[in-house]
């Protein structure tokens, strides 16, 4: 099956934008001292892991876009 390159590029760009939002939300939450000080450590750690994962997935998608769809 042939892949419509424009549609695939748009799909990947939409995923990058979604991950941009996830990263921004996690960064905002972790920058909130009240959250970090009052939330259970496990919750804060989970949010840090989510942030790292989102950043990594976003970087991989951006690299794929740059290489496959210059």
Keywords for this entry:
elongated, mainly alpha, 70 residues
Walk me through the structure.
This protein is an all-alpha fold. Helices cover 87% and strands 0% of the residues. The protein contains three helices and no strands. The protein has helices at 5-31, 33-38, 41-68. Helix 1 (5-31) packs antiparallel against helix 3. It is elongated, with a radius of gyration of 16 Å. The model has no long low-confidence stretch (mean pLDDT 94).
Which class do the helix and strand fractions yield? mainly alpha
One letter per element, helices H and strands E, the order comes to HHH
Which percent bin holds the helix content?
over 70%
- Strand percent estimate: under 5%
Number of helices: 3
List low-pLDDT spans.
none
Number of strands: 0
Averaged pLDDT, please? Answer: 94
Question: Topology of this structure?
Answer:
Elements: H1 5-31, H2 33-38, H3 41-68
